[in-house]
Amino acid sequence: MPHNDNLLLASLSPGDLAALQPHLKLAHFEQEQVLYEAGDTIDATYFPTSAVISIVVTLSSGQVVEAAMVGRDGVIGASAALDGKTALSRAVIQLSGEAMVCSSAGLRGAAMQSQPLLSLLIRHEQTLYAQAQQSTACMAAHHVDARLCRWLLRSRDLSQSDTLLFTQEFLAEMLGVNRTSVTVVAHTLQQAGIIQYTRGKIRITNLVGLQDAACECYEAVKSQYQGLLGEPKHQSL
Ligand SMILES: [Zn+2]
């Protein structure tokens, strides 16, 4: 069942899942597709199964910077079920793939009938908030090469693939740096045998090397999500 590929849905009790099931449908999303803009009304929530989604802040200059990355360990737009009906930031597809889409009304209705589901959604929003706080600290304190490694590792976990289809422009935008910085770091990592970079595609060739080069924020966010999901026995990132 596709819903099992989203770890939040997979963690639900049979009763909670049955309540959501009529409101869920699988959909495909393409890279750079915008799910909603800041200020939009949230009328759908997205439980990614293979798609990876970025929550980004947009500045008046047109620059965008990523605050959090959400994939199969999370949900986008769950605050609508908790009465936060307006999006506060942009949600954009970072890696093409699929997500289970749930109507906000359906999620809200199910959450109001189930304390465990309501608790899970509240804990998820706390985890998302913690991830955004970690991103703030990371940007202020960590070097761009360690940040890029952190970012590639989380992308790998969420997409479950060692090959990531990213252009240097997109990477620069997500990391809030100029393209030249990304080019320099990607070249250094390639020289070290950690990644192979061709136009629009990054392949991770030395996972341990990438982990060693990443800042602590990768593990910090990972452990927060493991706490949220109660470290499921059969499905891990
Ligand atoms: Zn960091």
UniProtKB/TrEMBL annotation:
Domain Cyclic nucleotide-binding: 8-91
A UniProt-annotated Pfam family: cNMP_binding
InterPro entries: cNMP-bd_dom (IPR000595), cNMP-bd_dom_sf (IPR018490), Env_Response_Regulators (IPR050397), HTH_CRP (IPR012318), RmlC-like_jellyroll (IPR014710), WH-like_DNA-bd_sf (IPR036388), WH_DNA-bd_sf (IPR036390)
Keywords for this protein: DNA-binding, Transcription, Transcription regulation
One annotated GO molecular function: DNA binding
Originating species: Bradyrhizobium valentinum
Keyword Metal-binding among UniProt keywords: no
Domain of life, source organism: Bacteria
Protein name as catalogued: Cyclic nucleotide-binding protein
